[in-house]
Write a structure and sequence with these properties.
Strand order of the largest sheet: 14-26-25-24-15-22-23
Shape: elongated
Helix content: 40-55%
Oligomer: single chain
Distance between the termini: 47 Å
Structural class: alpha+beta
Largest sheet: 7 strands, mixed
Radius of gyration: 33 Å
């Protein structure tokens, strides 16, 4: 993990001189300064509120060696500054005791402290344009009120001194984007914007030098301000874009323990090679793909495959990078490292899917393809027509500039972000965060919805369902055994028994048998809680943990089920009622997936699906013309989330899944998903209405400009009225 030095304190010049002299007279000696602080990053996928933040920060700050701990709720991430000897492995159990799942993130891979520079940059340019526009508008009002001759010229020169540097600085995003488009021989919405700004400034400067009546400095600045406002609204409707592939890479284990002649040596994962023997302790994640050489345990594959229950692991069992070792130490022989691991291949799948999604053309870009050339043609025709009619270059250029200013896409620039901002605000109140600028447009066209199972339609945690069939004595024994294990079923049994007021029996010699269960001694007999095969019971099709009280009776099973998320049934029913096809695709077992599909009334389902199977199924649906909404939460869903036309992940999802998705569901309730589809359809309708308003504005204003009646006052009123109209129409969504 990257360690950083604390910044040195500033000192006076005299102290520096004294220090230098002392160094020159002292014997030369090489001094190596040890790092004074380590920086760690932990992913916290289950935090969801301010109380969670306080609890995590308090728990971490109370841990020895921690200097500071800060939690970011949006990113669901904790950044920790600590003594160099503090490791993430020391902190993960601390958070587990507090009730929070945690995963280490590699700061060398992930720019976890990256600041929101783009947003601040846009806001700064918007402020400069607004301030300059107000000052120039005050001067223009004096001109419009009758100032003439030397007074008018002075006001115009002052306006020019303000407008030129302000437009050059504030309009940089438009200049950059326009140049990028022109370099590859295409047009975008920024090209007519830049042309209008340049012509407005140049012709106004020319008019000022000739003591002309009209100058468009105020229009150029107002145009810049309104367009930057639209650009900033557009930016704020989505989170800072981060690559899902990068998040996946950051989840890879940064260090591993390699066995060298029975000695444990901690090395960077990059130093591992094929055939290395790697020790993975309980609670650790697999750093490589490989096969278990020694040890028995259980593996949590839920984030990778969607399997609800841990799987038994013994010598010869294949393991994949990212799986979590639960109960016993394992020695794994590496068979795939680095870029060859399954986790890295999953990241590649996501990167490929991201490139496919980038081909989507937004409504604004589609409008720009028609609008930009149309504006240029109109302006050119106005220039040529007036020049041939009057042979007055100055008049022809002024009218061409007026046409460009009048037709410059202020309303179009606000049409999409104004609606998106209003719709995003409405959905945010319902618990949904819109991340991507075109997510609502894409959601409006959805006709097929694909759900993941574990952690999405269900909570992903087992719940005991038959506590009442056991005697109190049996429950006391079971509770004592369950408290000696970290297995998910044991934790669920413990929670249910404690809630029922059960106290543990006095079980002694408690031992956990990795991969099998827990056993102990009670009143002179051996009692056991664990897998059906270990106790000689018939497992059956339902998830169960078996209890043997050592009295000769057949083992009895505690039955568990994966509880539905709140609103899951309502969301599926409402989507069906809206005419959308609903599918369930999961990596869980066939029995578990079939049971859930029947409970929710989902006719089409697919079980035991690998990550590539999910992505391929969604791609197949897309190839047949379906617009797919994918809802998922695990690493195994990231490729599918990115391949879908639009995607949603719960806030409890791992970072990689949330980054791959377009919309984040902030609460536990799934019911807002159906409403989001309705709001998206209304938002798209408002966007199209705004385009029609902008078109109507141009139909009225362009003839005035071509006829030579577009004075700076008319241009300012026209631009402002169209922008206000578009914004008010967008607010109807609220």
């Amino acid at each position: 993990m990257t360690a950083q030095m604390r910044p040195a304190m500033a000192v006076c010049p005299g102290c520096v001189a004294a220090s230098t002299e002392a160094v020159e007279t002292a014997p030369t000696e090489a001094v190596e300064t040890a790092p004074t602080e380590a920086r760690l990053a932990l992913s916290l996928p289950t935090i969801h509120c301010q109380a969670c933040i306080s609890k995590v920060e308090r728990g971490l700050n109370d841990h020895p060696g921690i200097h500071s701990a800060r939690v970011n709720l949006t990113l669901k991430r904790a950044l920790i500054e600590a003594d160099p000897e503090v490791r993430a492995d020391d902190l993960i159990p601390v958070l587990a005791d507090l009730g929070f799942e945690a995963h280490e993130l590699d700061l060398a891979t992930l720019a976890a402290t990256q600041s929101d520079r783009a947003g601040r940059d846009l806001l700064m340019r918007l402020a400069v344009a607004g301030f300059a526009s107000m000052n120039v508008m005050l001067l223009s009002v004096s001109v419009w009120s009758g100032a003439s001759d030397a007074t008018r010229d002075m006001f115009h020169w002052i306006s020019a001194a303000i407008a030129f540097p302000a437009v050059i600085f504030a309009g940089k995003p438009f200049f950059t984007n326009a140049w990028s488009a022109l370099r590859v021989g295409r047009l975008n919405m920024d090209v007519p914007i830049v042309l209008a700004l340049v012509l407005a400034l140049v012709t106004s400067l020319w008019e000022t030098s000739l003591s002309g009546d009209h100058a468009y400095f105020d229009a150029a600045l107002t145009l810049t301000f309104l367009l930057l406002a639209g650009r900033y609204l557009d930016y704020r409707t989505r989170a800072v874009a981060r690559s899902a592939a990068e998040e996946l890479a950051a989840l890879e284990v940064p260090r591993a323990i390699r066995m060298e002649d029975d000695t444990e040596v901690e090395v960077p994962v990059a130093d591992l090679a094929y055939g290395d023997l790697i020790l993975v302790r309980p609670g650790g994640r697999m750093p490589v793909d490989g096969v278990i050489a020694t040890g028995e345990s259980e593996l949590d594959r839920s984030l990778l495959t969607g399997e609800t229950l841990p799987v038994f692991a013994a010598p010869g069992t294949q393991v994949s990078a990212g799986e979590v070792n639960l109960t016993g130490p394992l020695v794994v022989r590496a068979e795939a490292v680095g870029e060859d691991t399954s986790l890295h291949r999953m990241a590649d799948l996501v990167a490929i899917a991201e490139s496919g999604r980038s081909r989507y053309t937004s409504l604004a870009d589609s409008a720009a393809k028609l609008y930009a050339p149309g504006v240029h043609i109109l302006s050119a025709l106005a220039f040529v027509g007036w020049y041939l009619y009057t042979f007055d270059l100055r008049m022809a250029l002024n009218i061409a500039a007026a046409v460009l200013i009048i037709t410059c896409p202020c309303a179009l620039g606000l049409a999409v972000p104004a609606v998106t901002t209003a719709a995003s605000g409405r959905l945010f109140k319902k618990g949904m965060l819109i991340k991507h600028s075109t997510a609502l447009e894409r959601l409006a066209g959805v006709d097929t919805v694909v759900f993941d199972k574990t952690g999405t339609l269900t909570t992903g945690t087992p719940q005991l369902e038959n506590l009442e069939v056991f005697t109190r004595a049996e429950l006391e024994i079971a509770l004592a055994l369950a408290e000696g294990s970290s297995h998910p079923l044991s934790r669920a049994l413990t929670a249910a028994a404690r809630t029922a007021g059960i106290a543990p029996a006095d079980v002694t010699d408690l031992q956990e048998r990795p991969g099998f269960g827990t056993q102990g001694q009670y009143m002179g007999r051996t009692v056991r809680l664990g897998r059906a095969a270990w106790l000689g019971a018939d497992q059956g099709s339902q998830t169960a943990a078996w209890l043997d009280t050592g009295e000769g009776a057949a083992p009895r099973g505690f039955l568990f089920h994966d509880a539905l998320r709140p609103g899951a049934a309502e969301a599926v029913a409402q989507l069906h009622a809206a005419g959308k096809e609903v599918l369930l695709i999961s990596g869980d077992t066939t029995a578990a997936v079939e049971d859930l599909a029947q409970r929710l009334g989902i006719q089409k389902w697919l079980a035991e699906a690998l990550p590539e199977d999910k992505a391929e199924r969604i791609q197949s649906l897309s190839d047949r013309g379906h617009k797919v909404l994918m809802v998922g939460d695990g690493l195994n869903d990231t490729a599918a989330l990115t391949a879908a036309h639009v995607s949603i992940s719960p806030a409890s999802a791992l970072d990689a899944a949330r980054v791959a998705s377009d919309i984040v569901l902030l609460g536990q309730d799934l019911e807002p998903i159906a409403e989001a589809c309705v709001v998206a359809s209304k938002a798209t309708k408002r966007i199209r209405e705004n385009f029609r308003i902008a078109t109507l504005y141009n139909v009225i204003a362009v003839p005035l400009a071509i006829a030579g009646f577009a004075t700076p006052l008319i241009a300012a009123l026209a631009m402002s009225s169209s922008s206000i109209t578009v914004s008010l129409n967008a607010l109807r969504l609220k």
